[in-house]
């Protein structure tokens, strides 16, 4: 079973994402901001991180840059999942090391297809 | 808003007459959902009145709109990714070798809906320009729905449509933002695909010697008899060593002698060069 860390400050989004991911046979962990997400990664590195952009304490971009700079044994796939839906944000995310990008709102098929593209579903 | 059994029969018959497709039980529940907006837009009050207006025959545009609404235009970029990897990997390499002299590959997306699969192939070629220098890559995409073809030709996709199946790097490379949370495919790719309205019940469009035919998630809506005719049309339009790509849940086995499983690419089919005369009569 693959594992996914859902990083979003919205409980509702985390709940929706968890529901979809569990139907796709993922084990799911949650974090409400980037700092909490880093702690989760230190404890147990997930196969994939579903990452929001704007969050308190530490946003998605800062989390991603920090994650990619750290010398973990393995690096997870990172799929941004955000309402920042313009080309400039998407390019910035890819440049920072994101593997995929989901524009909110999203549905099960979209998320599943993105997870297939990064090779975890 | 409910639709009566009599109206369902009228709609079912009209759909089959015009497209060959059957309104299967699994699709009947959709009638009310997909036709409600038409009922409201026309101020007709009920689905039965809408069907009556269509059956009266005085409003061809309304009939077209009803047929369009009843068709299932579900599709996505690289739908069933594994099949596309086979097609664009080993199957295309084999064709490349077989067509070294002609340096031409003709591809037909038959029942293309809103065009995502045809554009997926166009993207693949566009990203490998050096490999295909000097080749003519002809991509034709057809559908019975004028609305779907119009959207395909416009290259305009909603946020939901554009990200379903399409890697973000390709989205950023080949699409530009458009007002209303839409994304439009770049002119270079729009020019790479010809879109036409065409019914699979009719003889294949030109050049009628396709090296690759995609006919995906369409045949399942046809009766056995119509499916045999359509398979015959596809076979007539296929080059002797053409590759056929069906939907993930579709097969040629027990359906037609004209195509057989591709021994090199499980899940794809190739035309049997010797089969054509025997089944031509079926059409």
From TrEMBL, chain A:
Domain of life: Bacteria
Keywords: Phosphoprotein
Biological-process GO terms, alphabetical: phosphorelay signal transduction system
Record CDD domains: REC_hyHK_CKI1_RcsC-like
Response regulatory domain: residues covered: 3-119
The keyword Cell membrane is assigned to this record: no
Entry-annotated residues carrying 4-aspartylphosphate: 52
PANTHER family (UniProt xref): TWO-COMPONENT RESPONSE REGULATOR, TWO-COMPONENT RESPONSE REGULATOR ARR22
Protein name as it appears in the record: Two-component system response regulator
Species of the source: Allosphingosinicella deserti
Lineage of the organism: Bacteria, Pseudomonadati, Pseudomonadota, Alphaproteobacteria, Sphingomonadales
């Amino acid at each position: 079973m693959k594992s996914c860390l859902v990083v979003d400050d919205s409980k509702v989004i985390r709940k929706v994402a968890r529901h979809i991911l569990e139907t796709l046979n993922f084990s799911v962990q949650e974090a409400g901001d980037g700092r909490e997400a880093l702690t989760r990664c230190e404890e147990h590195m997930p196969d994939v991180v579903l990452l929001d952009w704007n969050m308190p304490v530490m946003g998605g971009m800062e989390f991603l840059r920090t994650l990619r700079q750290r010398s973990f044994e393995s690096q997870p796939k990172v799929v941004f999942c955000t309402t920042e839906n313009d080309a400039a944000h998407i390019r910035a995310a890819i440049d920072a090391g994101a593997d995929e990008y989901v524009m909110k709102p999203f549905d099960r098929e979209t998320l599943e297809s993105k997870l297939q593209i990064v090779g975890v579903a | 808003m409910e639709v009566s059994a009599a109206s369902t029969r009228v709609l079912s018959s009209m759909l089959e007459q015009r497209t060959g497709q059957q309104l299967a039980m699994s699709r009947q529940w959709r009638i009310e959902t997909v036709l409600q907006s038409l009922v409201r837009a026309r101020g007709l009050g009920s689905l039965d009145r809408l069907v009556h207006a269509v059956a009266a025959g005085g409003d061809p545009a309304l009939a077209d709109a009803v047929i369009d609404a009843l068709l299932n235009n579900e599709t996505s970029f690289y739908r069933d990714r594994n099949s596309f990897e086979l097609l664009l990997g080993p199957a295309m390499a084999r064709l490349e070798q077989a067509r070294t002299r002609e340096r031409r590959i003709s591809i037909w997306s038959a029942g293309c809906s809103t065009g995502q699969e045809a554009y997926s192939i166009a993207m693949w070629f566009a990203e490998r320009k050096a490999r295909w220098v000097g080749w003519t890559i002809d991509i034709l995409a057809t559908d019975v729905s004028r609305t779907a073809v119009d959207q395909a030709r416009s290259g305009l996709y909603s946020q939901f449509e554009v990200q379903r199946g399409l890697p973000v790097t390709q989205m950023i490379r080949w699409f530009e933002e458009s007002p209303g949370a839409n994304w439009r495919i770049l002119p270079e790719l729009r020019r790479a695909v010809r879109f036409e309205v065409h019914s699979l019940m009719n003889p294949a469009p030109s050049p009628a010697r396709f090296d690759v035919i995609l006919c995906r998630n369409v045949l399942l809506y046809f009766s056995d008899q119509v499916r045999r005719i359509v398979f015959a049309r596809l076979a007539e339009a296929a080059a002797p060593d053409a590759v056929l790509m069906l939907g993930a849940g579709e097969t040629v086995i027990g359906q037609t002698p004209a195509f057989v499983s591709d021994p090199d690419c499980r899940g794809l089919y190739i035309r049997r060069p010797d089969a054509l005369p025997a089944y031509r009569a079926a059409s």
